[in-house]
Design brief:
6 strands; 54% strand; six-stranded antiparallel β-sheet; mainly beta
């Protein structure tokens, strides 16, 4: 079994903790929820199957450019 882990997986390109309802623009590849019921108002990117609510500890991957939360807190990892 091959497991591919890169430096990016550990946030070496930086990250942003989002814990408000403001609109945040950037270039992220991974979003991890820090709360049990993180809810998105807007999540713009190439991941069309993105859920509107994430449980604590769940990560989603894709190319994301806008994140607006209605509740909760996330870490958005830079591409």
């Amino acid at each position: 079994m091959n497991i591919h882990v890169t430096q990016d997986d550990f946030g070496n390109r930086g990250s942003l903790v989002i814990a408000d309802t403001d609109s945040h623009s950037g270039d992220w590849f991974k979003i991890t929820s820090l709360n049990d019921s993180t809810a998105f108002t807007t999540l713009t990117g190439n991941n069309s199957g993105t859920p509107s609510v994430l449980a604590k500890g769940v990560s989603i991957y894709g190319q994301f450019s806008v994140i607006d939360l209605s509740a909760g807190e996330v870490i958005a990892y830079n591409r």
